[in-house]
């Protein structure tokens, strides 16, 4: 079953569930280096959660070039 990520709140809820981090709306636009507790394991968990939520593969090569969580959302939801 897929869950559309149509609102910022949908994405923020997925982020919190996937990473276990206390992220807020501003966190989505911050560089990864500025996110307290962020590491590569969180990135893997996020990609996996996005693939389940959207029902599509998320291109990891593009994700690795992203600098913010919002850029990852755009990659995952691109048509």
TrEMBL record:
Domain (Carrier) ranges: 5-79
InterPro entries recorded: ACP-like_sf, PP-bd_ACP
Name used for this protein in its record: Acyl carrier protein
